[in-house]
Amino acid sequence: MPRFDPHPDRRPAVVTGASSGIGRAVALGLASVGHPVVLGARRVDRCQETAEKIRADGGIATAVTLDLTDAASVDAFAATAEAVHGPIEIVVSNAGDVLPQTTLATPPDDFARQVQVNLLGAQRLVAALVPAMVTRGRGDVVFVTSDVVRVPRPRMAAYVTSKAGLEAMARVMQMELEGSGVRVGIVRPGPSATEQGTSWSDEVVVETVEEWTRWGLLRHPGYLRPRDVANAIIAVVATPRGTHLTLVEVEPEAPTARPASPEAPATARLASPDATAPAPATAPAPAIEIAPEPTVDPGDSSAPGPGTAGGDVPSPLPTTDDPTPDPGATP
Predict the structure, then answer these.
(1) What is the distance between the alpha carbons of residues 63 and 84, in angstroms, rounded to a whole number?
(2) Is 159 one of the catalytic residues?
(3) pTM of the model
(4) How far is CA 56 from the centre of its chain?
(5) Active site residue: 77, 111, 143, 159, which one?
C-alpha cells in the first residue's frame, strides 16, 4: 500500500464567497485549526470584519477583494494570496450567484453573469493556483456546488446550468490530477440558511416555492446552517492523505416525528421547527465551533427575512454565498 506524507501543520487557504454564510464559516473553521486564510469576495468590508475576528482569536487572516466576473481581479487575488501567506495548500471555491428566473425569461447578459461567477471565474482561479500545487505534489481543492445538480429546480435556469458545469469540471479535474497528490473534492449542499434570496420579492419567493412544491421538491422544512456545510468542507481537506473524498452530499435532516402524547405513543406528528426534543444522554461536540453570523441591523435591506434563505425560519432555497448585489450595484 502506498504511503503518503502527512499534511503540513500550516496549510494556507483561500476561500471565495467568504463575506457571509458558508464561505465565512469555512474561513473561521480553517483558521480555528491553525491555517492562514485569505478571504475573497466583492464585499471585502465584510471579509475584513471576519479577518479581524480571526486575528483577534489568535489566527492569521487577510481579506482581499475578489470579483469573479473580472479576470484582472481573479489574477490579482491569487497573486496576493500567495505573496501574503506563501504557497496555497487549500482552495475552497464557494462563491455563487443566483437569480430566480426561467430559461426564457432570463436576460442573456444575466445568464452569462451567473455562468461567469459560478463556473468560469472558478476555473480561472484554480488555473492560477493549482498548477503550483501539482508541482509541489500536494493540495486540496473543494468546489461547493448544490443539490440542484442532482435534482434541477425550475426558475433557477442559469444557476442549475452553471453549477452542473462546475461539477462536471471538478469530475474532469479529479481524473486529470489523479496521482498528482492534489485532491479535488465536491461538497454538494442542500437547502441552507444563508443570505441567498434576501433580495427576492415576496411575490417571487411565493411563486418559486409553489412551483417547487408542485414538482415535489420540498419534502420537509429542514435547512442547513452555514457551519454544517463548513464542517463537511473542512472534513474533506483534513482527511489524511491516502484517502480522497470525491463527493460529499450534505442535506438537512427532517424534523423528528415523535409521539403526540404519552397516551398515544403510536400516533406520530411532525415536530415543529422550534420544538425541543429530549437531549441525548451523551451529546457529541460539533467538529468545529464557528461563531454565529454578525447581527444585522433590522433596517438593513440585506437582512434575512421569513421565507428566504438566511431567515429564522426554515428555507427551501438552495445554497450560495456572496449573494446577488442590489440592482444597479457595481460588482
Answers:
(1) 11
(2) yes
(3) 0.79
(4) 24
(5) 159
